Amino acid sequence: MAATVTYEYPVTIPGGTTIAGGTTGPTSGWGGNAVTATLAMLDTDTTATFVHGFGLSIAELNALFPMVVVYQQATNGSAVGLSFTSQSFNSFTITKASLTSSGGTWVIQAYRPYSPNK
Length: 118
Fold this sequence. Notes:
9 strands; 4-stranded antiparallel sheet; 4% helix; Immunoglobulin-like; mainly beta; 1 helix
């Protein structure tokens, strides 16, 4: 089984597409400011892609957006750190070492740059 990202928020995106409970993230330019999901990885899983669909600019990527909050919800025995790499305009890659008892479930939250004028 491969790593599974299950999107929880937003429940629906403009146009009425439901993403909550599914494994397909929001499409590019959907206009929201936050995406949350659970990430389930087995011991042998090493990568997963988180799609936020923010359509970030190069300036926003250079300013280190999106902001990502992560915490481990459940573990198979060991607390394991995750790495976040390969950021793009609409997604980023999550990497974990393939170790015994390294699997588990994490909550991932991504936030786009926001101001009242944006």
